[in-house]
């Protein structure tokens, strides 16, 4: 059995995962049909837990010390711990080649990794402060304390301070970023492999999931994204990705 380490939140959604990096691994596990359990840990517990199970750091802090991040997984079948969303998905493909689709088909590694790092992140960037402030209020006090110290400083009330026009402008920029992806996809329904999901799809899905958590499924914004923008492509795309495994046609 695989254990996935994730961060707890208070979002009222069956899938309260707000880290886009954990989200993509969660969807990848679902797509590959691999059973897993989630172990919730706070920011303050990441380093100790990763060291305890043997999950490596994913980068180096400015002071030269190792940085441990979620997601990481422990697989009791192989007794191995793996960190970093891209490396975890590569591990799943390699270890369970017959389970579900190959999420990183040969020869697509570099482009999929870059897509996940850059293009898939682009729709989130205009809303960065708004999203961070909104997420902050869905965390426990001890999680909030750690969350404000991650990345560039932000105003925890930013989501309330943005004017209507300012917000509208940010959503327009997000629509444009998604529009670039829509334009590149053209008539295609998926990003890499026709009729089956890949790591790139999971990465884009996870980013849109964060937006959904923050604005809520009944909001005007979510309705626009899923039903109006780009001829309703994203609503169909997200439902297909979420139901993949049960329904495998698009
Ligand atoms: N390259 C890593 C990035 C993971 C990452 O940045 N995770 C964040 C949560 S969204 C984290 O654990 N941050 C803890 C910290 O920076 O101390 C991946 O793809 O898994």
From TrEMBL:
CDD domains per UniProt: GST_C_family (cd00299)
Record-linked InterPro entries: Glutathione-S-Trfase_C_sf, Glutathione_S-Trfase_N, GST_UstS-like_C, Thioredoxin-like_sf
Pfam families the UniProt entry points to: GST_C_7 (PF22041), GST_N_2 (PF13409)
Start and end residues of each GST N-terminal domain: 9-100
PROSITE patterns for this protein: GST_NTER (PS50404)
Protein's recorded name: GST N-terminal domain-containing protein
């Amino acid at each position: 059995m695989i254990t996935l380490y994730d961060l707890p939140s208070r979002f009222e959604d069956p899938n309260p995962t707000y880290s886009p990096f954990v989200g993509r691994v969660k969807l990848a596990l679902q797509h590959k049909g691999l059973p897993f359990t989630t172990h919730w840990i706070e920011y303050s517990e990441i380093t100790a837990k990763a060291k305890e199970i043997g999950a490596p750091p994913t980068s180096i802090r400015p002071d030269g010390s190792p940085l441990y991040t979620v997601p990481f997984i422990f697989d009791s079948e192989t007794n191995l711990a793996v960190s970093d969303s891209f490396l975890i998905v590569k591990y799943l493909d390699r270890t369970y080649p017959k389970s579900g689709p190959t999420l990183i088909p040969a020869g697509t590694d570099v482009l999929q990794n870059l897509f996940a790092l850059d293009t898939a992140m682009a729709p989130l960037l205009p809303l960065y402060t708004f999203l961070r402030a909104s997420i902050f209020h869905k965390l426990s006090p001890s999680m909030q304390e750690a969350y404000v110290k991650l990345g560039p400083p932000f105003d925890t009330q930013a989501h309330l301070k943005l004017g209507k026009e300012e917000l509208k402008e940010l959503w327009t920029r997000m629509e444009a970023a998604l529009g670039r992806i829509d334009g590149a996809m053209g008539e295609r329904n998926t990003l890499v492999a026709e009729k089956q999901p890949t790591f790139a799809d999971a990465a884009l899905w996870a980013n849109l999931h964060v937006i959904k958590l923050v604005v809520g499924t009944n909001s005007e914004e979510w309705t626009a994204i899923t039903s109006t923008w780009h001829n309703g492509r994203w609503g169909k795309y997200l439902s297909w990705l979420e139901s993949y495994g049960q329904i495998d046609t698009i």
